Amino acid sequence: MRDVGLSVELCGVRLRTPFVLAAGVLGTTAALLERVARRGAGAVTAKSCSVRPRRGHPNPTVLPWEGGLINAVGLANPGAAAMVAILADTRRRLAPLGVPLIASVFAEEAGGFGEVVRILEEAEPDFYEVNISCPNVAEELGLPFAADPVQAARATAAVRAATRRPVIVKLSPNVADICAVGRAVVDAGADALAAINTLGPGMLIDIRARTPVLANRVGGLSGPAVRPVAVRCVYDLSRAVAVPIIGMGGVTTGEDAVEMIMAGATAVGVGSAFYQRGMGVLEAMAAEIRAFMQEQGFGCVSEMRGLAHGA
Amino acid sequence: MRDVGLSVELCGVRLRTPFVLAAGVLGTTAALLERVARRGAGAVTAKSCSVRPRRGHPNPTVLPWEGGLINAVGLANPGAAAMVAILADTRRRLAPLGVPLIASVFAEEAGGFGEVVRILEEAEPDFYEVNISCPNVAEELGLPFAADPVQAARATAAVRAATRRPVIVKLSPNVADICAVGRAVVDAGADALAAINTLGPGMLIDIRARTPVLANRVGGLSGPAVRPVAVRCVYDLSRAVAVPIIGMGGVTTGEDAVEMIMAGATAVGVGSAFYQRGMGVLEAMAAEIRAFMQEQGFGCVSEMRGLAHGA
Amino acid sequence: MAPSPHRAGRVVRVEPAGHRGVTIVSDIRLSARPGQFVMLWVPRADEKPFSLVADNPLTLAVVPVGPVTGRLQQLQPGDPLYVRGPLGRGFSLDGQRPLLVAGGSGAAPLAFLASRLAAAGREVTVALGARSAGELLLVERYQAAAARLWITTEDGSAGERGLVVSVAERLLANGGCDRVYACGPVPMLERVAALCREYGVPGEASYEAYMRCGIGVCGSCDRGDGLLVCRDGPVFDL
Amino acid sequence: MAPSPHRAGRVVRVEPAGHRGVTIVSDIRLSARPGQFVMLWVPRADEKPFSLVADNPLTLAVVPVGPVTGRLQQLQPGDPLYVRGPLGRGFSLDGQRPLLVAGGSGAAPLAFLASRLAAAGREVTVALGARSAGELLLVERYQAAAARLWITTEDGSAGERGLVVSVAERLLANGGCDRVYACGPVPMLERVAALCREYGVPGEASYEAYMRCGIGVCGSCDRGDGLLVCRDGPVFDL
Ligand SMILES: Cc1cc2nc3c(=O)[nH]c(=O)nc-3n(C[C@H](O)[C@H](O)[C@H](O)COP(=O)(O)OP(=O)(O)OC[C@H]3O[C@@H](n4cnc5c(N)ncnc54)[C@H](O)[C@@H]3O)c2cc1C
Ligand SMILES: Cc1cc2nc3c(=O)[nH]c(=O)nc-3n(C[C@H](O)[C@H](O)[C@H](O)COP(=O)(O)OP(=O)(O)OC[C@H]3O[C@@H](n4cnc5c(N)ncnc54)[C@H](O)[C@@H]3O)c2cc1C
Ligand SMILES: Cc1cc2nc3c(=O)[nH]c(=O)nc-3n(C[C@H](O)[C@H](O)[C@H](O)COP(=O)(O)O)c2cc1C
Ligand SMILES: Cc1cc2nc3c(=O)[nH]c(=O)nc-3n(C[C@H](O)[C@H](O)[C@H](O)COP(=O)(O)O)c2cc1C
Ligand code: FES
Ligand code: FES
User: Fold this and answer.
1) Has residue D82 got a pLDDT over 80?
2) Which CATH number is A141's domain given?
3) Nearest C-alpha of chain C: how many angstroms from B117?
4) For A103-134, what is each residue's pLDDT tens digit?
5) How many CA atoms lie within 13 A of D188 on its CB side?
6) pTM
7) Domains of chain C, earliest start first
């Protein structure tokens, strides 16, 4: 059998596997980020962080439902200063593994994105991911920046001005035209896109307690239920922009990852699948993707990229 | 045990059960509409129809996936003139059952909605439902009317001017702010809202065939995967507008229906659940809703309406 | 959690079926009842219903009538095949002394039934008809499974000249059959239904209708009485 | 396909547990391993982790330390209860001659383990400690399940004066125990771990950490070494 290679290149940085730990999942500590890196991640993303610490919403904040997860963590994070220490520690742990680190940043107004990046620069992350698409803080902050191309571009430009490192902008599926937002942030300097953040928002009501279950009432959906929407977003974006895309949303198996790649993704984000399949999920997916590539005669991941678009 | 009543009132019309057959599911012939009415529907909706016949998209047009269904039927219908005959036949069959008939209408531009309603008036349906939210004809027609409050209101006004019968407007979840659209169509004369039409759109790619599976490439999602989004839309709309709402999207069990009602729905649409549970689905759901009401001491469906909003 | 609803496989063998049709044997292993069908997907083209001639390995008999069947006609060993199913309600296996009445392309699902019934030790009688010798399908499969095989053609180019229903009537009149299974054009099915009533023998028939979803939601395949051919059928009691 | 992730039930009985705590017996029937926990939801307020004292019917022991535990304290028979679980990895049942070392509110999961092990016919030795008599929990349950029960309090208000770890050390030194199960504050667990190494006896301990999701995704409950208390634990090998 021909040996298959799983490595991919994202903005000139080599990832051992196409799997990227999605922001907000297990990315809270250096030890956890290292553990996920050792278990098969090509890159890991730390929890989104803002200039000041945020407590997030009261519990319940994350719940399983039949389609995956629903969450309204509310961007709990220790603030940028504390995050510098976590990121620096993580970088040290990841260096021997050859796994790059993505710092995810968030701010309450567009200009603030630059401020948090300027603080984090000290930790020298390999990438920044700009989270303009969290649907769980709408009550506090209104519609996410990603709902409006102009706002989205403004946040991107603020980050662009603050760093020379590659900038990934994370988009929301909860818009009528995701390509318009994608084009706007690429024009504003994004080196790559990540799609999608959580869908909805959605709501679960407990009919015996007669009340929404999440303390925040609504939360973003992730996991298998959102996969077809994520695949469509990646497919459409990859025609609309020329930058690489980290495709995510419901990817749970190696074949799901192939679907994302054929839709046009360069790398594949994995979050909720840690719930379904545990810490071994990326290793299992690597085996599945290899089996598929061998069955179909692919030698490397990039041969599959965008195939669903036809010749 | 206290006996529980399942009937509800929608715009002054009594429905024996809160269950409404969703548009586009099994609503193609009078015989099918009668059959669903006999099997427990409170009201039935005929397939969306346009002035001229439409062949719809080539197959595959409807596919099951793990979260429910994905479809891009493309509004196949025999045209308004042929629909008049189907609706009139259906009305005759439904009269002895006491099940009202909803005619669903669709047009390529806002003014056209009035034209199709004027043709259908001859069949005297009990309600009109205005389908401004089909996501499966975007390639042909661009974003649905429901993506824009102004367009949505224009389509509603056209129908309002063409009939004195109650008008339901069906909304799309694929917008950043569904309440803005809801308010606009109520201001334009809608007597009720239906929410939600299919989500997304989404895409399934067959990784061995290396191509999207639906002939239309993308299609709208329905079934269990969309339920939390539908519940959130109904919850938010019921605060934003004063008219009754037919809540739909993923309702599969009697307890799911209760969830919709507690979110604020007056009646509950059921579509994809016919796939999961077959022709007996509404009877099964009626038994489930009754069991819940008895367990919790509810005497009638309206006692549960909106309970999730608190006191 | 596979991205697609279709099972993928490959064509293993293509045999002629009558003058114009083909029997396609694949490497896809299903577990189905005779009378069930699959939706066969031709990527970037269309998806259409086909009865099973065998389930393991999946075998189809295709008569060319248009674009999709025309393309199936051209398949070569090794070509990919995509199917969704098995779908629908199949035949009962209740006939102890079954009579199978197959007209035209209705031969496909009854060939599957014949071999299942024979495997269960039943003595299978088959009346197989077509317009002409060239349109007779799956004759060898019936020969292998049937205890008695009666062939008719309307033009007399093979077997008895006449209609398959006439043979069925004769066999029913002779007695000895306790259940009739039929597949073919609707007028034929109606005549078989009348015979079943006349001779007091229970019958089942497989119907066709225009299908989209194949799973009982789109409403395309109403038989005319509100019954769905894809889900309530394609096999109905006569 | 239930709309909510929580199981709903009602409080059947509330018993005092020590001076300030309560044992809550519900009508919810779970099937769990000792050491597993549930997320208990107080609608419109919060959701927090609690160990099981028994699974069928679900029984919890709660010590008031803040808003949620304070409200649980007030529960009356008939009040509703909402739980998600059982979650996490529980204790093994491998100890043939087990020693259970419970400190403070660590008494809850080990009471469940004690009754499971006793039901399996094992001779259970328990060292149960607290700061004072009023903080001793579930004494009767331990009396019912344990072959030998050693009680310590730091102030000597009940049982022996001293630390539960000292008793554990004595028991290990005497031999006759082939597995240690521990639950209590982290410093206590560290001392028990050291004893296990010293005496060459395998040990398991249940840890606590701040939890949000309870299902291994949010990253709130890193034990400090990248292990998740909610999913890799709460029970870890010592
Ligand atoms: C339950 C069932 C089992 C079938 N089994 C077989 C079989 O074993 N072998 C076989 O050769 N054919 C079978 N058919 C018929 C087969 O589906 C059609 O021949 C095929 O769809 C024609 O497609 P086309 O593109 O070649 O021709 P088209 O030009 O698209 O159509 C030609 C004719 O085929 C029929 N047809 C077309 N589309 C459909 C559709 N979506 N659903 C049903 N009928 C359609 C119509 O009568 C139409 O006039 C079956 C049909 C059904 C409903
Ligand atoms: C696996 C596990 C099992 C537990 N079993 C029991 C039990 O059987 N009985 C019992 O009384 N308590 C148990 N606890 C502790 C219990 O979760 C806390 O007492 C409770 O969350 C306090 O909530 P509060 O609102 O009353 O107080 P708060 O004022 O919110 O907190 C008081 C203290 O409780 C702890 N705590 C608060 N929130 C959490 C949280 N989300 N996760 C973990 N700890 C928290 C912290 O130490 C905090 O300082 C367990 C904790 C864990 C992790
Ligand atoms: C519990 C949880 C917390 C999340 N927190 C963040 C976050 O802080 N920042 C962010 O950009 N995305 C966050 N996300 C979204 C994920 O990164 C990802 O975009 C989404 O979950 C879809 O991928 P999945 O289906 O693989 O989980 C979170 C998702 C979950 C489930
Ligand atoms: C196969 C199919 C066809 C549909 N056709 C229509 C339609 O013609 N008009 C319309 O308003 N909605 C149509 N819908 C949307 C449904 O009416 C409903 O809004 C949606 O499916 C969500 O409900 P469900 O999850 O119960 O199916 C269709 C849905 C399906 C699955
Ligand atoms: S083909 Fe769709 S209902 Fe039968
Ligand atoms: S509580 Fe969320 S990972 Fe453990």
Assistant:
1) yes
2) 3.20.20.70
3) 23
4) 999 998 888 999 999 999 999 999 999 999 87
5) 30
6) 0.96
7) 7-87 (2.40.30.10), 98-206 (3.40.50.80)
